[in-house]
Specification:
By secondary structure, the chain is mainly alpha-helical. Helix 1 packs antiparallel against helix 2. The chain is rod-shaped and about 80 Å long.
Length: 90
Amino acid sequence: MNGRSRREYLEAICVRYRQAELTEKRMILDEFCRNTGYHRKYAIRLLNGPPSDPKPPRPRARHRAPSYGAGVISILGAVWEAAGFPCACG
C-alpha cells in the first residue's frame, strides 16, 4: 500500500471511527493497522487527529545574488594558482 492509498483509506475510515462506540473502534483500529502496517498508537493519533488537508505547495526557491564581482573572482583565481592550487582534499 503506497502513501496515497493509505491517505485515501485513512480519510474513508476516519469518519466511521469517530462516530463508533468503543468496541467498534477496537475492530476498526485493528483493521486499519492490519491494512496499513501502522503501529497502533500512531494509527490512533491519525484517526483522532484533525482532518488532513492536501499538502500546501512548496514555496519557490530563491537564489542568492553573487557575493563577489567578476574582478574579485579573477584576482582570487590568480592567488589560488600562485599558491599551487591548494585544497582540503588531502
